[in-house]
Every structure is written in structure tokens, then in C-alpha cells.
Task: inverse folding
């Protein structure tokens, strides 16, 4: 698959995005990376290819700290502003404006997507947002179940698909389920990955390898975005 790289202006800075085209495609998923690795991490690349193979146009991008090869993530306002700039650029200038729009990401990237979607400030693209895909949502820091990151989720109007490992140190599927259940009327749900960790990796005894897990997750995302 031939990918396309392009540059996005974010205030006074710039970042790089990658388009994984699907043919034909009716949905567009903008997918952000997690805190510890950029969009070029093999897991992100494999997931993007798997989704494109299922008819979803995928765009990934780097947050500014990752683009600058810094290890420490930007502050929340910068992360959120980067998300908004990427969505505007993809919707307005990439030729993908006709696709049904979904956003999401791995861990931190998904959390920031939910914060942007929960923003009460009106934005034209939010009116077009069809759903969110959250891969390993960081419900709380490891070992700190008291520090929940759920208060804003009730303000997210489109449906959300949480793909969550059962042994995720940031909050397993069973921990997340009670909070998601309150939003189920909007189509929000949890897809548990049995035995999966924060990166959805499962033990060898499961009989599944990483590509098989990604394939199963990609199938579920394709159904969610259909």
C-alpha cells in the first residue's frame, strides 16, 4: 500500500501526518499515537494498514513533542490544539472531506481525542463527527484507580468504541465497563480483548499472535464505522 506523507501547520509549529488510503472508502479515521512512541511505531503502522485494508481511510500524525523527538508529552492544551489543527487540515485541505469522520487513538492519543470531542465550544467539524475509536483507553494511571479520567466522557455525544485489554494496567475492560454502561444508549460500548495488556498484546498461551489480535480489532472497528 502506497502511503502519503504531508505537513500540517499547528500554530507556529508544524507536524507530519501519514495517509493510509483505502479503495473504496466511505469512512475516515484520524488516529493519534500514545505517549511513549510516535506514529511510526510498528503497532500504529500495522493497525493503520489493517484498517485501510478493511475500507477505512486512516490518517495518523505526530503530536508536536514527538515530531521534535522529545520524550515528554506536551501539556494538555497543546495536545488538544494539535488535534484540532489536524482535523481542520485533513477535513479542509486533503481531499478527504467527503468521508464520514471518526477520530481516536492509542492510549493518550485517544484520551485527548475524547477531550476535544467533549469541548463545549462549538466547532463545525464536531457536528460531522460520527464516532470515536479508543485503543487502550488510559482510565487511570497504573496503580492509581482513584485518579479516574472519565468525568468528561458524558459530554461526548457521538458513540465511542473502547477496545480494552482485560489486564490493562491503566484500567482493564471490567474496570471500564461500569462507566461506559451509562453511555450505552448513545451506542458507546467496550470491546474486551481477553488477556490483552495496554497494547492489546495477549499471552502466548492464548494461541494468538499480534497480527491476529490486530486483525480481530480491525474487524470490530470496521463494523463500528460501517
Result:
Amino acid at each position: 500500500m502506497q502511503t502519503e506523507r504531508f505537513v500540517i501547520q499547528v500554530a507556529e509549529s508544524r507536524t507530519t501526518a501519514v495517509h493510509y488510503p483505502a479503495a473504496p472508502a466511505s469512512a475516515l479515521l484520524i488516529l493519534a499515537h500514545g505517549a511513549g512512541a510516535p506514529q511510526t511505531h510498528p503497532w500504529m503502522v500495522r493497525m493503520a494498514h489493517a484498517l485501510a485494508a478493511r475500507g477505512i481511510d486512516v490518517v495518523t500524525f505526530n503530536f508536536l513533542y514527538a515530531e521534535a523527538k522529545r520524550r515528554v508529552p506536551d501539556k494538555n492544551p497543546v495536545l488538544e490544539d494539535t488535534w484540532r489543527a489536524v482535523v481542520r487540515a485533513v477535513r479542509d485541505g486533503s481531499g478527504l472531506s467527503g468521508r464520514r469522520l471518526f477520530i481516536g487513538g492509542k492510549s493518550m492519543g485517544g484520551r485527548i481525542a475524547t477531550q476535544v470531542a467533549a469541548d463545549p465550544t462549538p466547532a463545525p467539524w464536531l457536528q460531522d463527527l460520527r464516532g470515536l475509536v479508543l485503543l487502550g483507553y488510559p482510565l487511570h494511571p497504573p496503580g492509581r484507580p482513584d485518579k479516574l479520567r472519565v468525568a468528561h466522557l458524558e459530554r461526548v455525544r457521538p458513540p465511542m468504541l473502547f477496545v480494552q485489554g482485560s489486564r490493562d494496567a491503566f484500567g482493564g475492560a471490567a474496570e471500564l465497563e461500569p462507566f461506559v454502561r451509562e453511555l450505552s444508549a448513545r451506542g458507546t460500548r467496550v470491546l474486551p480483548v481477553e488477556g490483552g495488556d495496554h497494547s492489546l498484546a495477549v499471552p502466548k498461551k492464548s494461541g494468538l499472535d499480534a497480527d491476529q489480535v490486530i486483525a480481530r480489532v480491525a474487524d470490530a472497528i470496521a463494523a463500528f464505522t460501517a
